[in-house]
Design goal:
The complex is a heterotrimer of chains A (about 260), B (about 400) and C (about 280).
Chain A lengths: L4 H14 L2 H10 L16 H8 L2 H34 L1 H12 L6 H14 L6 H25 L3 H9 L4 H12 L1 H17 L15 H11 L4 H23 L12
Helix pairs in contact in A: 2-12, 3-12, 4-5, 4-7, 4-10, 7-10, 8-9, 10-12, 11-12
Chain B lengths: L5 H4 L12 E10 L2 E11 L4 E5 L6 H9 L6 E6 L2 E2 L10 E4 L11 H11 L4 H14 L15 H13 L5 E5 L7 H18 L2 E6 L2 H7 L2 E6 L2 E6 L1 H6 L4 H6 L4 E11 L2 E6 L2 E6 L13 E6 L5 E3 L9 E13 L2 E8 L2 E8 L12 E6 L5 E3 L15
Helix pairs in contact in B: 3-4, 3-5, 4-5
Chain C lengths: L15 H21 L1 E2 L2 E2 L2 H8 L1 H34 L4 H13 L2 H12 L4 H9 L12 H26 L4 H7 L4 H29 L3 H7 L6 H10 L4 H33 L1
Antiparallel strand pairs in C: 1-2
Helix pairs in contact in C: 1-12, 3-7, 3-9, 4-7, 5-7, 5-10, 7-9, 7-10, 8-9, 9-12, 11-12
The chains are: A mainly alpha (about 260), B alpha+beta (about 400), C mainly alpha (about 280).
Chain lengths: ~260, ~400, ~280
């Protein structure tokens, strides 16, 4: 497959370019002037953005998605931090078991996860409510939030905490003054990563929406099935932009090589 | 990087500790079935510079951590200033600590690092500023307060770690091999600086190292440890000249070991069969064991106690054996000789200024020593600490 | 020597939130199973019998498994050149990683929608082909298995790139050079050094992508339509249109069974393959 180095390099470049291609097509289409997406494109306009903005369903779905993502990211990060901190400092023997449990949802096919979440959320009568969606998102994002925090805590020199203790810091003070600031990039990675996943989640979320609540990706999905209006392209472009910004921030705070570091669980 | 000048320090000298004693009684530590420390007893008087010296794995760091309160003893008691420390976490003990990797807070500036402990104690801002300045001056870093930790050199980091601990005026400062990562030059500078600061403040320093030279240079007293037990606790000169056993003698300073067998024991004298026949040695040279006739032993000789004479010279009442000079090495102020006496290799050290009278490599000679300079040890049990000290 | 501080029992409360979340997850799995082995009247194997016996359902199963297998193999194969490119171009790695990560993190609805725009009868590809005069009738690029495989592969490739690159980065980066210096051809180097060492990452990708693919809902529905269904499409219908949670759960349990079996199988293959390569 890589017999010829030039061939493999060119194949790599070509395939790499193809990854964002469908996204770029959508961005291009969102500025088209015609009411359906066509090739070659004719004319440029911002009318689809205007349409999206003035149809109250889209700003509403957008606001709900952002809200749910923010709440999910904050809660799941706190939960992960508490668990990772406790196991590493007080119960290292528990760590392996806890990780196994936390990572087990990753081996659940999404569709099955969706049905399981429906059953759970329905039990609490929370179908079609924001808390129901947040609950499912917490379970879905937990492994992605736990990993960066766990790595950050593990790479923290334990002597730093001991030094703070000797200088008179209680465990709580050392946590506040030393551990949390030193794990800043891991915590921010968790917040952004969980936030992005929640913001973009659709397979589980679409079972949990109701007449009064829908998220941006779920609403795009239901529109895609009915019509292919370029409004969708405009909405999608905005959602891509948000994800892109989040990735850039992630790059700044933690470096993207975090994703390909091999020291994780 | 000059160490603080005592004159300049005098008016600002923050305190003189009258406190700082440590009492360790029957302290043992075991992890499961593994025993790390076996019932230690130790009394450190206030204001001393004590070094815990031993090979890695001897338990010196464990003892330090027990005093710090990071771990609790399996048995026994530790008291600081007469107060029992049982169950007290590190933050409630009157101690400071300098860690091996220093553990400076990288997200704080130099000043913030030094101020951290004071802030925890709610020291008023003006007094806090004054103290931080006093102690940064003390370690010679008064001008670097605003630097980030990452902008400091290795030696400067050491000084910050020291200032950060001392500013809290602990009764005892624990130092866990803080110099081990530095190059030799810097290390020597800081050894002197550290000793001077300790003398200035009068704080009890408990210093952990595996470097016997460092220990000898800095300490008032040395605790030589091996296999989880204290082998000897004494002043550096006493440990060098009166080692408690062969382990201590080999670990602190260089030692020629000559195997022998005890032939007879009389009051005041022991007769030993060794190289060159039977020798009578004074019983005052016995170190830590009561020999019986027929037992094997080791005759220990410090290199500077061995004289090298021309083949026909008069030994003048000393024990003299025929030998050969294998090598003669000039090491600045001293000459180092590698000698052979029968099967036995010996190392001798003489002053370079006496060099003209000393034989060249390859020549035959007489190897002489005063019987009163010979020490007699019980051989070490099989593998214990076999690899320490240079084998003569 | 790391010692742990004696914990006061109150501190164990820090574990409570995560235990609650994990507990809820296990409750949901329990719910899934009790739903699957029941119908409206109580315990029953009715839906399993239905799912396993109906021939149209067997087609859906076969499509899901075979398509997912194709998607997994295709994703891993196509991601190798990308991963190698990123591995070799150390200076550009971070920038190029953005090109991989952004598509990975963009919602899969948006990416699937992009393929709809590309593959549709009036889509960009057909438009381009017609414009250049290569074809006169639009090609059937979607509402079939081809569309599903293209869409899913594209959606899942970034994960394979990340997984393989992680393995490659664990290799000493100068190993490839060293092997070259020793006279190995580029292909030999790849076969003897790069391939075996990147194999764990490739297998992780294979497993994860297969699992993600058999559990997909959105992409098969949008690009396969109702004529070319996946197990996920069936589950979607049962939950959203017929409100039969028991049947949806039975389908899900079948998915879980397939996942579990394929996980065991792939692990066994991985062990043997790594054994022979070493």
């Amino acid at each position: 497959m890589s017999a010829n180095p030039k061939l493999s390099t060119w194949a790599g470049i070509l395939l790499l370019i193809s990854l964002p291609a469908p996204i770029l097509i959508i961005i291009g289409a969102s500025f088209s002037d015609t009411s359906y997406i066509q090739f070659p494109p004719e004319g440029l306009s911002l009318r689809w953005y205007r349409d999206a903005l003035f149809d109250p369903r889209w700003p509403r779905a957008f606001a709900i998605s952002v809200g749910i993502a923010a709440v999910t990211a904050v809660i799941v990060t706190i939960v992960s931090f508490m668990a990772a901190y406790y196991t590493q400092r007080h119960a290292p023997k528990l760590a392996t078991w806890l990780e196994l449990a936390i990572f087990s949802p990753l081996f659940f096919p999404h569709a099955a996860m969706g049905v399981a979440m429906v059953a759970l959320v329905a039990q609490f009568g929370l179908i079609g409510t924001a808390p129901g969606i947040v609950l499912a998102h917490l379970i879905v994002t937990l492994p992605f939030s736990y990993r960066p925090i766990h790595i950050a805590l593990r790479s923290l020199d334990p002597d730093l905490v001991r030094a703070a203790n000797v200088m008179g810091a209680s465990e709580w003070r050392a946590l506040k003054d030393i551990v949390i600031p030193m794990c800043r990039s891991g915590i921010l990675t968790s917040l952004l990563f969980a936030g992005i996943i929640s913001f973009d989640e659709v397979t589980v979320t679409m079972f949990l929406i109701g007449p009064n609540i829908s998220t941006l990706p779920v609403q795009i999905f239901s529109f895609v099935q009915d019509s292919a209006t370029p409004v969708l392209a405009a909405i999608s472009t905005i959602s891509v932009l948000i994800t892109f910004l989040a990735v850039l921030i992630l790059d700044r705070v933690a470096g993207l090589t975090f994703f390909v570091r091999h020291d994780g669980a | 990087m000059s160490p603080a000048q005592p004159e300049a320090l005098a008016p600002a000298a923050p305190f003189r500790a009258a406190r700082g004693s440590i009492h360790v009684a029957g302290v043992a530590k075991a992890y499961g079935a593994t025993t790390v420390l076996t019932g230690l007893d130790l009394t450190v008087e206030a204001g001393t510079f004590v070094t815990l010296l031993g090979p890695s794995g001897c338990g010196k760091t464990t003892l330090l951590r027990l005093i710090a309160g990071f771990i609790q003893p399996s048995a026994g008691k530790i008291a600081i200033d007469g107060r029992d420390m049982a169950g007290l976490p590190p933050q409630r003990r009157p101690i400071g600590m300098v860690f091996q990797n220093l553990a400076l807070f990288p997200h704080f500036s130099v000043e913030e690092n030094v101020a951290y402990g004071l802030r925890l104690r709610n020291v008023p801002e003006t007094e806090l500023r004054r103290k931080v300045k006093t102690f940064l001056d003390l370690v010679g870093l008064g001008h670097l307060g605003n630097r980030r930790i990452s902008q400091l050199s290795g030696g400067q980091k050491q000084r910050v770690a020291l200032a950060r601990s001392l500013v809290l005026e602990p009764s005892i400062l624990l130092l866990d091999e803080p110099l081990s990562a530095l190059d030799l030059q810097l290390r020597k500078q800081l050894q002197v600086a550290l000793k001077e600061i300790q003398r200035e403040l009068g704080t009890t320093f408990v210093f952990v190292t595996h470097d016997q030279e460092e220990a000898t240079l800095m300490s008032d007293r040395i605790v030589v440890m091996s296999a989880g037990a204290i082998q000897q606790y004494d002043t550096p000169p006493a440990i060098y000249s009166q080692p408690a056993n062969l382990f201590v003698a080999k670990f602190v300073g260089e030692l020629n070991e000559i195997p022998g067998r005890i032939a007879a024991v009389t009051a005041g004298t022991i007769e030993i069969d060794g190289p060159g026949g039977r020798h009578a040695l004074p019983a005052s040279g016995l170190r830590g064991f009561s020999p019986a006739a027929g037992a094997s032993c080791v005759i220990g000789l410090r290199p500077e106690r061995i004289a090298i004479l021309p083949p026909d010279a008069d030994a003048g009442g000393r024990i003299a054996l025929p030998g050969t000079v294998i090598e003669r090495i000039a090491l600045g102020p001293v000459l180092r000789f590698i000698l052979r006496c029968g099967e036995q290799r010996l190392v001798a050290v003489r002053l370079a200024s006496d060099g003209a009278a000393l034989p060249e490599a390859g020549s035959t000679c007489r190897i002489a020593f005063d019987p009163a300079d010979a020490q007699v040890f019980e051989p070490l049990a099989a593998p214990a600490a076999a690899s320490f000290g240079e084998k003569p | 020597m790391t010692e742990t501080q004696p914990a006061s029992p109150a501190k164990a409360l820090l574990l409570l939130p995560v235990l609650v979340l994990l507990g809820l997850f296990f409750v949901s799995v329990f719910q899934l199973f009790s739903n699957g082995f029941a119908d409206a009247d109580g315990w029953s194997l009715r839906y399993f019998r239905q799912i396993l016996n109906r021939s149209d359902y067997q087609v859906i199963f076969a499509r899901t498994i075979l398509s997912s297998l194709t998607v997994a193999l295709l994703s891993v194969a196509l991601s190798y050149p990308i991963a190698l490119l990123l591995w070799r171009l150390e200076r550009w790695r971070n920038t190029l990683l953005i090109v991989v990560l952004v598509p990975w993190l963009v919602s899969l609805v948006v990416r699937t929608y992009g393929w709809l725009v590309l593959l549709g009868p009036k889509g960009v590809i057909n438009g381009m082909l017609a414009w250049t005069g290569i074809v006169h009738q639009p090609l059937a690029l979607m509402f079939n298995d081809l569309g599903i495989v293209i869409g899913l592969t594209h959606v899942l490739i970034p994960f394979a790139v990340i997984s393989i690159l992680s393995s490659l980065l664990a290799i000493e980066s100068n190993l490839e050079e060293a092997s070259g210096v020793l006279g190995a051809s580029r292909f030999q180097t790849f076969r003897r050094i790069v391939l075996p060492l990147s194999l764990p990452g490739a297998f992780t990708a294979l497993i994860v992508i297969f699992l993600a693919s058999i559990g997909a809902i959105v992409t098969p529905i949008v690009l396969g339509g109702m004529s070319h269904q996946f197990v996920g499409s069936q589950i979607y219908q049962e939950v959203m249109y017929t409100f039969n949670l028991n049947k949806a759960a039975a389908w899900s349990i079948c998915l879980l069974a397939i996942s579990f079996l394929s996980l065991l199988l792939l692990k066994a293959i991985e062990r043997r393959l790594i054994g022979t390569l070493e």
